[in-house]
Amino acid sequence: MSLEPIEPRHALELYLTDRENNVSEATLYSHRSRLGHFIRWCEDKQITNLNELTGRQLHEFRLHRREEGDLAPTTEKTQMDTLRVFIRWLESIDGVETDLHTKVLSPTLSDGDNVRDERLEPERAKEILNHLQRFSYASRPHVVLTLMWHTMMRVGEIRAIDCDDYDPDEQFLRVAHRPDSETSLKNQSRGERYVALTDEVAELLNDWIANCRPDVTDDHGRKPLIATEQGRPNTTTLRRDCYRYTRPCEISGECPHDKEIEECDATEHNKASQCPSSLSPHALRRGGITHALSEGWPMKAVGNRANVTESVLSTHYDSRSEKEKMEQRRDYLDDI
Questions:
Q1: For position 336, what pLDDT does the model report?
Q2: Residue-wise pLDDT tens digits, 267-323
Q3: Closest of 171, 124, 156, 160 to residue 284, by C-alpha
Q4: CA nearest 183: which of 239, 225, 133?
Q5: Strand 166-167 relative to strand 172-175: parallel, antiparallel, unpaired?
Q6: How far apart are CA 6 and CA 49, in angstroms?
Q7: Contact 165/225 with Cβ under 8 angstroms?
Q8: Phi, psi (5° rounding) for residue 70?
Q9: Where in the numbering of this chain does the Tyr recombinase domain appear (predicted)?
Q10: Where does 154-285 show beta strands of DSSP type E?
Q11: Per-domain residue ranges for the chain?
């Protein structure tokens, strides 16, 4: 096989462009982020042509990521699995040697290792949302974090909603897959659904639309429900809202990590994710799902609202103890 020279960063852009019509924006964002570590490592190692990439170098990168990132086994596996997909794609365009992807190794997880437990606890969610209600009412972060917690939506789904998808009279949101106008859903048409809202959340949306939402359209002439002055925000903007307001210092003015707030890098613009206590949008989603299950919601109802199968809910989202599950089942004893 005759290989064609290709520079690492150019290869990544070609890969993402090739996949953008087949996967959601959230998946593209994740792959760009994970593979970015590999591209920067190649540049540090002065690897300018991926034709020369070897299995030994791939192993060296794996060790580098494990040590530099202090990665948990689940995170290491996710990153290396994504790299394997990328290397296999490179094989298809004659960018690396045939079967090089088989030399990308990742951890074998034992039972329970693949279950994440990072989530926003109900008490902390209440504290954050109360703070936003009082000091930043109907701001974009207030609306975004409220929807993450109460609707259990993915961040890409929240971004995709238009003003026309909101029914203020019947108080619901429509989640729609619109790949032709750059708002695809993770589960594509299987992710489409209607999500009911409480009176309080509907009132917040009404005030956001009436008083705070920028009167803008996106590049396709649609009116995004969550908007910035530039139009429809990207998911990075919404993630930053989440990271910022889940920092303890943002709410309490105190740091649980014994840092001087004025000197902490995590207080700088776009660096909130560096705070050890800040949480991702997925942690809010997981927290909202776990809270609903703990409050006695039927698993099928939670799954339909959050667009998650019951098996995935049970494995990855249900953080109740076995005793807590037993006590909730006790409520049905009177019906026997």
A1: 65
A2: 987 888 888 889 889 889 989 998 998 888 999 999 999 999 888 888 777 766 788
A3: 124
A4: 225
A5: antiparallel
A6: 5
A7: yes
A8: 50, 55
A9: 115-330
A10: 166-167, 172-175, 193-196
A11: 8-103, 122-281
How far apart (Å, rounded) are the C-alpha atoms in residues 238 and 148? 10
From 336, 291, 278, select the one nearest 317 (Cα to Cα): 291
| Residue (of 164, 155, 313, 163) closest to 243 by Cα position | 155
Closest Cα to residue 163, out of 232, 229, 230, 219?
Answer: 232
pLDDT band at 1 (very low <50, low <70, confident <90, very high): low
Q: Which residues pair with 196 in a beta bridge?
A: 172
Alpha-carbon distance of 142 to 205, in angstroms, equals 10
60 C-beta neighbours (distance < 10 Å), count: 13
CATH of domain 8-103: 1.10.150.130
Q: Is the dihedral of CA 121, 131, 237, 25 positive or negative?
A: positive
CA 78 to chain centre: 14
The alpha carbons of the chain give a radius of gyration, in whole angstroms, of 22
Alpha helices, H only, the chain: 8-19, 25-44, 55-69, 73-92, 122-135, 140-151, 155-160, 199-207, 235-245, 248-252, 281-294, 299-306, 310-312, 322-330
Whole-number Å distance between alpha carbons of 36 and 43: 11
Q: What is the DSSP letter of 231?
A: B
| Per-residue pLDDT, 216 | 98
* CATH class of the domain at 122-281: mainly alpha
The residue type at 134: R
Residue 307 is predicted with a pLDDT of 93
Give me the sheet containing 193-196, strands edge to edge: 166-167, 172-175, 193-196
